[in-house]
Amino acid sequence: MTKETVLIVDDDTRNVEFLRDSLLVPSGYTALCATDGEEAVRLALTEEPDLILLDLQMPKMNGFHVLEALNRQGREIPTILITAHGSESVAMEAFRLGVRDYFPKPFKAAEIMAAVERSLTEARLRRDKEELAARLEQVNRQLEQRIEELTILYGISKSVTSLLDLDKLLARIVEATMYVTRAEETSLFLLDETTQDLQLRSVQGVGDREARPVRKSTDNAVVREVMDTGRAALIPTAGTHESPPPESRLAVPLRARRGTIGVLHATRKMAMEPFSDRDRYQLSLFADHAAIAIENARLFAEVEEQRSKLETILIGSEDLIIVTDELGLVLLANPAAADAFSLEMEGMIGKPLLEVAGSEALDRLFDLPLTSNGVRSLEIPLVDGRTFHASLGPVADVGWALIMRDISHLKELDKMKSDFVATITHDLRSPLTAIQGALALLPELGGLTGEQQEFTERAMRNVEHMDTLIRNLLDIGRIEAGLEMEMEPIRLDAVIEEVVANLLGGARSKGLVLQAVVPDDVPPVRGNHTRLMQVMTNLLDNAIRYTPRGGKITVRVEDAGEQVTVSVSDTGVGIPAHAKAHIFDKFYRVEGAETRELEGIGLGLATVKSIVEKHGGKISVESTEGEGSTFYFSLPQVEPESD
Ligand code: ADP
Question: CATH code at 462?
Answer without folding.
Answer: 1.10.287.130
